[in-house]
What does this fold into?
Amino acid sequence: MVKQVKNAVKAAKRKLHTGRRGNPGNAAKYITRNKALNRLQIKLPEFRRLCILKGIHPREPKKKFEGQNKTYYHVKDINFLLHEPLLEKSREIRAYEKKITKARAKYNTDLAHRLQNNRPSFTLDHLVKERYPSFIDAVRDLEDPLTMIHLFATLPADTTHSVPFERVHSCRRLSLEWQAYVTRTHSLRKIFVSVKGIYYQVEVSGQKITYLTPHVLNQVLPEDVDFRVMLTFAEFYETLLGFVNFKLYHSLGLNYPPVLDPRLEQAAAELYALMKDLAGGTTSAPLLEDASAKEDDAPVSVDEQQSLMEAENKEKRIAESQARLASLQDRLKQIEKEKEKPQDVPVQVKTEAMDVDDVIEDEDLETRTCRRLFQNLTFFLGREVPRESLLFVIRSFGGAVSWDGDGAPFPENDEVITHQIVDRPTQGHKFLSRHYVQPQWVYDCANNRILLPTEPYLLGRIPPPHLSPFVDNEAEGHVPEYADTIKRLRLAANQQLAPLPGSESGIDEGELLVAAAARRREDLEAEKERELAAMEKSYAEDLRRELAGKSFSGEEEALADVPESEVLPPPKEDDPKDMAKMMLSRNKRNLYQAMEMSNTKKKEEVKLIKERKRKADEKERKKKTRTM
Amino acid sequence: MDAGERQVQVRFTTRLGSDLRVEATAFSLPVHLNRYGLSQIINTLLALDGPRPFDFLFDGELIRTTLEQLYLSKNLSAESILVLEYILAVGPPELQSSQPEKDWVSAVNGVNPSLILSGSYDSFARAWFPDGTCGSVLKGHSDAITSIAVAGSSNDTDLDVITSSKDKTLRLWKVPLKPSSSTLSSVRIFKGHAASVQCVAANPSNTQVCSGSWDSTIKLWKIDSEDEDNEDEQALKKRKLDGAKQSIAQVTAFTTHKEHTQCVAALEWPEDRYIFSASWDHSFRQWDVETSINTLTMTCSKALHCLSVGGEGSLLVATGGADPVLRIWDTRMPGTVVPVLQLTSHTSWISSCKWHRQSPKHLLTSSYDGTVKMWDIRSKVPLQTVEAHKDKVLCTDWWREDTVVSGGADCEFKLFKYTPIEWL
It folds into this structure.
């Protein structure tokens, strides 16, 4: 009987071991790369490209059944690739290439030429639809695409690395379109200028997207980067961003792609060109007028003009057909609209930078504050400052801006300019009516949503530290001094302190700065005050005791006794924390230890920062006393 | 005391009576002693029955640290003999009486030793007697009383009192000195301010009054004049029309100073020659009465709420205002821009400050933090702090040398008495 049972158990175990009933084993789930290549019947580069486009990546099985140095993929993924139309398309293209070479080999130039012109092409549209079933998915995944597109927009078209100029051009166009959209909707939230590049955070459809753009410098292409992989990614991202931009523009009721002002484009102020287009273009009609207005003021190359004309004609045709279809009432309305247009179009052209201070419906509070930050300010950018970035930021936060160069909307000597952004040690001629500030001021103001006092940022000064808006000071455990000052300024600005009757209206920046400085001084004096308060307290206490008739020496002894008893370490108990730690599983314990380690590391970092700060302060003080 | 501790040589001197005098020899004392320890030593040396707290002066400053810290801060050599003068310390005050009123108590006056005057937001002023009973009620203003001044007395039975009010007028009353409860009506009315009157002060010879107002003017009035000749016919006609009602004499100002740009918050008339005024425009000014010239202007960084003239030769001006710092200015130094002393212990705005009438060293301040503090200007920390009121303290004054009266926003009127002190 016992033997029977044992046998049954053994059988069951064997069955379990072979795993016929349970989950399929690793060998059934995973496939090595070479096998996958064989199954798909393609070469490795083609496979890599396909994987990138489809978003398939290698896996790490628990047990690598064919060796440690192999790359494994899910069998499912490979089967998924097997059905990819692109696979078929690439085979088709390869076959077509063969036809061309054959024709060339036979000196059939006619055929070769014809074949060359009618090559089959492919698009990645279906991949975008497949990978991002809803729009919000695409927006959520936009960080990498934006970074990549902005990177390629600044790269030189280079034949040795096979970076085609078309790619660079289209990346540039897409990035500008994106920036124009952000500017128009005022959805830029945070900016941080680092050594690596400029980080931007944008809020689109409720999603916070953080991306990095390179500094506008002459880029050197490094040798150790596989540009083929990068280009494949760029290719897909281009398609994706094209779709996203299209959708975003249409959600605003704008035409996509927007029409660029060719003159400004030539002057390398593309963003402005785009924005100029968008500013006047809530409906198609002003766009038309804008386009026709542009036509006469610049020498435009023939084909550009043609394309413009074409666009115009198309628009006109559509408008006409619409008008024909519209009811009488609609027609009347349109007539009325057209009557009004001549009046408000010039205004629009003139103040296209200034936002009309009307309340836009379904606009959240943050967007409104962003839109109004630089509302009544006019900026002028010097030659030496990064124009594109500043243009982007200032316009996103509602300011009007011009620059030193071709196509500028207004010249440097315009009286309306309130702030001139300069980044040089000295300035020759200065207008008294404007502030000469360093670019950091703009970024800091934008990050903090208040107009900071310009004094520390003035020309030739060492500006205050550029604090990252992406760092949570509270969580980090260390609040830099300047962050504290900004916080105070912000509070003061938000409270909108009621001015004293008789004084000038509102709080001006200087006053705020003075207040901040006074507060800093107060901080220094606070210790002294605390000392005084302690003295006062001890005096009152002593007097009370003396009147009560207690002797001084007795008090002293009693006081002397107390610390000694406190110095003794408390009796060692079983720390409940240690006990709990022992009860954890090894994995969790390791995790806990890692947490503890990172916490101590963070604390040490904070300590180090404080120590450095202390030393720097001391140094400064010494220097000051020496000079005194 | 352990033997390892360092010792310093200390010699005590005093200006107190012979029964409180110790030998003029140097004692060797441990450095950790503070005021308390030193006081204990004096007590043992004199073999006094009960503990008598003493305060110690070095170099004109009260000692509030240990001897060691004193040596370090003054850069003294450890070998030198420290000469300390001792005086009697001021003990904590006792609450004498607390009287509820109907509204905020906005003004108190304790110039006259036989009665105390208080003004309230319920538009009445009251006279209180030492036993805590309410004597006369001064009825006549139509709005809150803001300030009270005493202009002496023409005879022994009653006292001339002037009150200022938010109803833009000042009124003169004759308050009987004998304890009796009665309702008084005003004798004279001073009209002319365009906004509520914030402060009032009478000159030492009790012939004139000055008043400061929210219309940022200071007006000077003669107490005894009934200037009917000044009035034009229209007014006369009007007076005739409601002649029966208008039984009290009306006075108009003879001079107006308009230099202040904001509400004049405090006035003081220390001598017949000149007036001091403090204003919300951050400045306090001195005015020459004869020539009506603004002879001195000092500017502070904050709006001023109160001002008091006193100190040595009545030449120090204490001001308090929209910050917790009491500032003391020396008017003898022309061109001074900074106060000679800044006392910080309050945690909120200062509502009033008063020099002691006899002592040139003692000061009283009240603050919106609910405390009344007594200061000795020889020390940076206050001598005594009283949690006088549960709400803001609006006014305070000395009465009879050792008593303090205060009124606050908790609608209480309080009297505190300090243990007998010898003012030096």
User: Anything to note?
Assistant: The first strand of chain B starts at residue 7 and ends at 14. Residues 227-232 of chain B have pLDDT under 50 and may be disordered. The interface with chain A takes residues 1, 32-37, 39-40, 50-51, 53, 64-65, 89, 91-92, 261-262, 280-281, 303, 344-345, 380-382, 384-385 of chain B (CB under 8 Å).
